[in-house]
Amino acid sequence: MNIHEYQAKALFEKYGVPVPKGVPARSPAEFESALSALGEAPYVVKSQIHAGGRGKGTFTDGFKGGVKFAKTKAEALDYANKMYGNTLVTAQTGTAGRKVQTIYFTKAADISKEYYLAILLDRNTSKPVIVASTEGGVEIEKVAHETPEKIFKVFIDPAVGLQGYQARQLAFQLGFTGDYFKNAVKLITNLYRMFWDTDASMVEVNPLITTPAGEVLALDAKVSFDDNALFRHKDIVDLRDLNEEDSKEIEASKFNLSYIALDGNIACLVNGAGLAMSTMDIIKHFGGNPANFLDVGGGASKEQVQAAFRIILTDPNVKGILVNIFGGIMDCNTIATGVVAAARELGLTIPLVVRLEGNNVAAGKKTLAESGLKIESADSMADAAQKIVKLVA
């Protein structure tokens, strides 16, 4: 789960990570009071969407920049009014962009130097890793490609947590001295504590800055949480912004279905994440394009299958459906009954190919055959993929 920058910075402050003073405004009526709460200009006006590259983004009406420096209050209000309700397109949003529904005003900070800092999970070592660089405010992927020697990593043993010498090691590598060094060590230590306490999967500060006054501040904030641990964090779940999520994915979560929208035209309904990935691969292999990843799990009910069909058919790009079920625990006849009920309920008119294998498969195939519906049966994954690709071509 992702959260907005202003929400992430509120968490930072809770854990003693310094940030510039800021106030979010969720409607134009709140702009004046938000700026008044910040005091005198200059300000930074920031569009709040769940995507990076906002500063270099362009709104669909041609206005450029989702992050703007404002010398005066009037200038800040002008920028905010141009951003609010407008759709911002960045390198991470796709061409559709995201509608800006919150503006975050912050006090502009005096910047001496910019750095990069992130904490994330390293899949190879199964350990948290802190990544830091002297090159902040730019794309870290570019730094990693062109000047990898400027990126430093410290791996944390989760059994003992971040050790003091490790935070000091990073501060030394970043070149901090004096008050900057002490403040950087404290910031790194507190940021790791937040990462661990909240079951975050990624915390990124880009840029981390120093000021002439000796401060070390998180000028930006990007935080993602492990969905599997959210049951432990009701306060974090309350930060979820449904406006930033695909409506089909929200609806799927209500039925405990794992759904991720894609940009193809062949919908997939599969049980098991591995089989779902294989199904998408084989559709691509035979020249088709999957419209979604949809895992109904190992024990889906008839009602969940019907819900899955309803969600699939809300996507106007879907031209055909492939159901691929391996009945290890699941009863194939339960799936077949759900498929038939959903097809009748929804008056399905687009091609439907069903491949069943495993537990009670004979009964499942009998249910499909006796339904009187136009359902193509398949004997294997390859057979199913070739049939659905041909039918939607």
Overall description:
- 35% of the residues lie in helices and 24% in strands.
- It is built from 13 helices and 19 strands.
- The strands form 5 sheets. Strands 8, 9, 10, 11, 12 and 13 form a 6-stranded antiparallel β-sheet that branches. Strands 1-7-2-4 form a 4-stranded antiparallel β-sheet, with helices on one face.
- Strand 18, helix 12 and strand 19 (376-378) form a beta-alpha-beta unit.
- The radius of gyration is 25 Å and the shape is elongated.
- The two termini are 36 Å apart.
What count of helical segments does DSSP give? Answer: 13
Average of pLDDT: 93
Structural class: alpha+beta
Specify the biggest β-sheet: 6 strands, antiparallel
Distance between the termini: 36 Å
Radius of gyration over alpha carbons? 25 Å
Strand content: 15-25%
Strand tally, please?
A: 19
Helix content: 25-40%
Low-confidence stretches: none
Shape verdict? elongated
In short:
It contains 13 helices and 19 strands. The radius of gyration is 25 Å and the shape is elongated.
Features:
393 residues, alpha+beta, six-stranded antiparallel sheet, 13 helices, 35% helix
Give the topology.
Blueprint: H1 5-14, E1 22-25, H2 31-38, E2 43-47, E3 58-59, E4 67-70, H3 73-83, E5 87-89, E6 98-99, E7 103-107, E8 113-122, E9 127-133, H4 140-146, E10 151-155, H5 164-173, H6 178-197, E11 200-210, E12 216-218, E13 222-225, H7 234-237, H8 247-254, E14 258-261, E15 266-270, H9 273-285, E16 292-295, H10 302-312, E17 320-327, H11 332-346, E18 352-358, H12 361-369, E19 376-378, H13 381-392
Parallel strand pairs: 15-17, 17-18, 18-19
Antiparallel strand pairs: 1-7, 2-4, 2-7, 3-5, 5-6, 8-9, 8-11, 9-10, 11-12, 11-13, 14-16
